[in-house]
Design goal:
This protein has about 100 residues and is an all-beta fold. The chain has one domain. It is built from no helices and six strands. It has a four-stranded mixed beta sheet, with no helix packed on it. The protein has a two-stranded antiparallel sheet with strand order 4-5. It starts with a strand and ends in a 13-residue tail after the last strand. It binds zinc ion (ZN). Zinc ion binds next to loops.
């Protein structure tokens, strides 16, 4: 079994730049919001489950608001399969 890291997004917040619209709100050719890349949401929380070590401490990785995850302190020679959420941007909270 190869070692796997499964990424879960645990927190989002509405993009303050476009107020969740994902664009600049103009009726004629709205421009994609650069801050959230058109998603309307920013990632604020990430959890990574390691098949060997369990849930990783937050010091073992870094992430940005686009949901890109950067692993720290991992041996590059080791074969690790990283499992990303299928489409985290489709997950909607109960309020919507
Ligand atoms: Zn935005």
């Amino acid at each position: 079994m190869p070692r796997t890291l499964t990424i879960h997004f645990t927190g989002f917040r509405e993009c303050p730049n476009c107020e969740g619209r994902g664009d600049d709100g103009t009726s004629w050719r709205p421009l994609e919001c650069r801050r959230c890349k058109g998603r309307g949401k920013l990632v604020t929380g990430v959890e990574i489950e390691d098949s060997e070590r369990g849930v990783l401490p937050s010091s073992a990785y870094d992430f940005n608001t686009f949901g890109e995850v950067f692993l720290l302190d991992f041996d590059e020679d080791e074969e690790i399969e990283v499992i990303h959420p299928e489409n985290p941007w489709d997950q909607r909270g109960p309020s919507s």
